[in-house]
Write a structure and sequence with these properties.
Helices cover about 25% and strands about 25% of the residues. The protein has about 400 residues and is α+β, with helices and mostly antiparallel strands. It is elongated, with a radius of gyration of 31 Å.
Length: about 400
């Protein structure tokens, strides 16, 4: 039943985002279930150049991942044809970052290697070894190690394990009780750099087989980046930015087991309640709408989420003037028809400032009532999104909302 409802909820979410104008640019994206679920959650990500998330799509498919979980195969950097050079320990204390290190050693960044020590919840120390131009994805590393919690090892542990300060750890000569996990980005290299396990020193021209055993297995423990490929199809990901506007995921019995939350079935037996999480970020959605639908003058609200449907602006100096009276009459008629309206009653403000505020607020339809419009058909009606202007009678305009 949980799976049945879960898969019914997804199209319901899609219908909702379609109604508010985001349907065609909102995608279902696989993301981390975090501490709540071992399975992927489904995020609803709206494509947006300023979005906080990076989405990785497998070309030609509807498979999309949030970068936090995207499996990735690094663009191979191989130099296997190179002749093995003698290993050297090079002094390089105080160098910060792989770019600076590569420049100092006069090598490519891809030749550098990061070795980061982590501790699991039971005290196991693990070394994550990754190509220097990548970062470690702790969620992926947790999955490889089969642990629940993971944290960077404190400086005292790094010193105890490697004999060096933080920043100079390397995979050569680590104690047997340290599990070394090699990322697949490190495969196929010759004459690479790594920490020398000596404070202030780096090892250059390191080679598998001669200086360190060839790893029996390489893993994917890196944060995916643009240029990486999907490991299954080996196709390079299409990458774009998105903003999360919704999320659904299954909890199964994680919390019902913890709290003893059960129900009695038709046979009189107690069973745990299966649970799921279904969220929409209501305030976030409004921010995304404004980010997606705007121009240089202000917001372009879609009809179904606009704060009002009509913005009425009388061009009058006094409330007794005909344009003001006609505008107020129109406002009351629209209200009777159930149409939400804004009425611009700040007649002491300049015409330009009132028009600019109307564009800034972004109500879909702006209506101007002036001596000039009354001498014509009655109303100047502007579509905020297209900028199209029409002259309409009051009766013709009211028919739009009948």
């Amino acid at each position: 039943m949980l799976d049945f409802f879960f898969h019914k909820a997804i199209p319901a979410y899609q219908a909702f985002f379609g109604r508010i104008g985001l349907g065609e640019i909102t995608d279902i994206v696989l993301a981390s279930g975090g501490d709540f679920s071992k399975e992927y959650s489904r995020e609803f990500q709206t494509r947006c150049p300023t979005g906080e998330d990076h989405i990785f799509q497998v070309p030609g498919t509807d498979i999309r991942y949030n970068r936090e979980v995207a499996p990735s195969k690094a663009k191979r950097w191989e130099n296997a044809s190179e002749k093995e050079l003698p290993r050297q320990d090079v002094s390089g204390k105080g160098i910060i970052g792989v770019d600076e290190l590569a420049k100092y050693l006069k090598i490519e960044v891809e030749r550098t290697t990061k070795t980061l020590l982590f501790e699991t919840e039971n005290g196991q120390v693990a070394a994550a070894v990754i190509r220097g131009d990548y970062d470690v994805n702790e969620a992926k590393l947790r999955a490889v190690l089969g642990c629940k919690a993971l944290a960077l090892a404190p400086a005292a542990v790094v010193k105890e394990v490697t004999g060096a300060e933080v920043g100079y750890a390397g995979p050569i000569g680590l104690p047997e009780n340290v599990r070394v996990v090699w990322d697949e980005s490190t495969a196929g290299r010759r004459n690479f750099e790594c920490g020398a396990n000596k404070t202030g020193e780096h090892s250059a021209n390191v080679n598998f087989g001669r200086d360190i055993p060839e790893p029996k297995e390489f893993f994917d423990i890196k944060v995916a980046r643009e240029g990486d490929a999907d490991p299954k199809t080996e196709k390079e990901y299409a990458v774009y930015r998105g903003s999360e506007v919704g999320n659904v995921f299954t909890l199964y019995t994680k919390f019902s087991d913890s709290f003893g939350f059960k129900f009695m079935d038709k046979d009189g037996k107690e069973k745990p309640v299966y649970m799921g999480c279904y969220g929409i970020g209501t305030t976030r959605v409004l921010g995304v709408l404004a980010e997606v639908f705007h121009d240089e003058h202000g917001v372009l609200w879609p009809e179904n989420v606009a704060p009002a449907r009509v913005h009425i602006i009388p061009l009058a100096k006094k409330e007794s003037d005909a344009p003001y009276k006609e505008a107020l009459s129109l406002y009351k008629k629209l209200q009777k028809q159930g149409v939400d309206c804004l009425f611009e009653d700040r007649i002491n403000r300049s015409v330009g400032s009132r028009m600019a505020d109307a564009d800034l607020i972004g109500v879909p339809t702006r209506v101007v009532v002036s001596e000039k419009t009354l001498a014509d058909k009655g109303l100047e009606v502007k579509d905020r999104r297209t900028g199209e202007i029409q002259m309409l009678s009051v009766a013709a305009f009211l028919k739009r909302f009948a």
